[in-house]
Write a structure and sequence with these properties.
It is an enzyme of class 2 (transferase). This is histidine kinase. GO terms for molecular function: kinase activity. It is built from 13 helices and 7 strands. With about 375 residues, it is an alpha+beta fold. The chain has a 5-stranded mixed beta sheet. It has a two-stranded antiparallel sheet with strand order 1-3. α5 packs across α8, α7 packs antiparallel against α8 and α11 runs antiparallel to α13.
Length: about 375
């Protein structure tokens, strides 16, 4: 279609938008058919990646034609999350849409002015940029989630090995073995510090909901498993409260427990027992880990409660490490994380999650 001819016989704005909307179903059907025939990833998935976004884009273009000006479009982003798709295939879907749209307008005899064609082209370009931005964001989130999970999985055996090395020191009188155990502990501590920094950076950067695998979980059985896997070097762990079963992600809750109990062991009073308490109220399960000893300084506590951000210069080193992940797990279940710390009552971290997290996951 020659744009100069269209400029000689332009349709009024309202008439053009009405005629454009009348082509909607035919254009979308032809677009879907061409995508399914020409893009192998769409064939494997059984639908175009932008199937849900394209009707919104079409209506967006109609509104732009009605108003005579482009507007912001951000609906393609949510649909650009399919791992089987590459960015070039997302662009290909939008290019097919552009070709089908202009061909249908020409076949119907719609007189598009140069400005009308530019509005349509600009809207499709905006959708292309948005789709790629969403694709990149999903890639970053997947990478950060992987780093966070791997970091926690690496930390847990390190904690077991470190506690075991400390037990060896307590149970031997051989100076050579004692020194070797101390060297092992020191190297494990160095490795743990590096992994914790990686974990903290990854999770605090992501700040998004985690992908959870829900199943029925017996929280008391999980607590027993975690405490059994973490030698406490003479420090007791007292478990109290209700036997609660719920729909949660077992793996992520296990990491939460390991993190909180390990922190309580490292930064609490080793002469006092760590207390893990489970309670249930108003459809939620409350999991609290408490330790006696020096509290978190008030200024640092306020900063932690503003989002558990990393604290560089604190007297109690390490409390913030891993807490962004704990908070992310709680919030991804539809819950929250709270901390209470004061002189005379010690420190308590409380994770609150719905007993049935299924309605909150994926929303």
């Amino acid at each position: 279609m020659d744009s100069s001819d269209a400029d000689n016989h332009p349709l009024p704005t309202s008439a053009l938008a009405t005629a454009f909307l009348a082509l909607r179903e035919a254009v979308l059907a032809q677009w879907s058919a061409r995508v399914m025939a020409g893009i192998p990833s769409a064939q494997r998935l059984g639908a175009p990646a932008l199937a849900a976004a394209m009707p919104l884009l079409y209506d967006h273009i109609a509104h732009a034609l009605q108003a005579g000006a482009p507007g912001a479009f951000a609906a393609a982003r949510e649909q650009a999350t399919l791992s089987d798709y590459g960015p070039d295939e997302l662009i290909h879907e939008l290019q097919i849409f552009r070709d089908v749209l202009f061909a249908a307008a020409g076949a119907r005899g719609l007189a598009l002015s140069k400005r009308d064609a530019e509005l349509i082209g600009r809207s499709i370009e905006d959708a292309e940029r948005d789709a790629i931005h969403g694709y990149d964001a999903v890639g970053r989130q997947a990478k950060e989630t992987f780093i966070a999970a791997l970091s926690h999985d690496l930390r847990n055996p390190l904690h077991v090995a470190s506690a075991s090395a400390q037990l060896i020191q307590l149970k031997t009188s051989d100076p050579g073995i004692t020194n070797l155990a101390k060297r092992i502990s020191a190297k494990l501590a160095e490795t743990d510090a590096m992994i914790q920094s990686l974990l903290d950076a990854a999770v605090s950067e992501a700040r998004q909901k985690l992908t959870l695998q829900l199943a029925q979980v017996d929280i008391m059985a999980l607590i027993e498993e975690v405490c059994g896997d973490l030698p406490m070097v003479g420090q007791r762990v007292r478990v109290e409260g209700d036997a609660v079963k719920g729909w949660w992600c077992r793996g992520s809750l296990k990491r939460v427990l390991e993190n909180l109990v390990s922190n309580a062991r490292k930064y609490g009073d080793s002469a006092q027992a760590i207390t893990v308490t489970v309670s249930q109220a108003d459809g939620s399960m409350l999991l609290a880990v408490h330790n006696e000893g020096r509290p978190i300084p008030a200024a640092d506590l306020r900063r932690m409660c503003r989002g558990f951000q990393r604290i560089e210069d604190v007297r109690v080193k390490g409390w913030e490490l891993g807490l962004p992940y704990v908070q992310a797990v709680a919030e991804s279940h539809g819950g929250s994380l709270a901390v209470d710390s004061a002189e005379g009552r010690g420190t308590t971290f409380t994770v609150k999650v719905p007993v049935d997290a299924r309605p909150h996951v994926g929303s």
